[in-house]
Amino acid sequence: MSHKRDNKIPQDMVELLLAQEGLCFYCGDPLPLTSHVYHLAITRDHFYPKKEGGGRGSNIVLCHRMCNEDKAHSLPNGRMIKLFYDLQEIVQAKKESIEMLYAKYKYLGRKGMLKYNE
Question: Between these two residues, 7 and 94, which has the higher pLDDT value?
C-alpha cells in the first residue's frame, strides 16, 4: 500500500521558519518554502548534537540538508552560539504573532490553498 506524503509544513517548522525569517541557520541563504519540496531540502538539526547531550525542543534549528550534513556532529562555535541564543529570544518575543500566523496557515491548509499536487 502506498502512502501519499502530507505536504503540510509542521507547526514547529513554521514557527522556526518565521523566527529564522525563512533563512538557513548555518549559511543564511533562503530555505525553499514551497510545501511540495520542503521535506526534500529542509532539515531540523540538533544545534547541540544529541551525542553531546543536546535534546529536542528549543535545541532545534532549520537548515539546508547539505548544511546539516556539513555540520555533522561538530559542536557549535562562539558565533553560532550567539546566533542560537538570539534566535531563542526572537522565538519567545514573537510567540503570539507566530501562533496567529499558524492559525491562518492552518485555515488556508484546510481550504486546500497550501497543498500542491505531486
Answer: 94
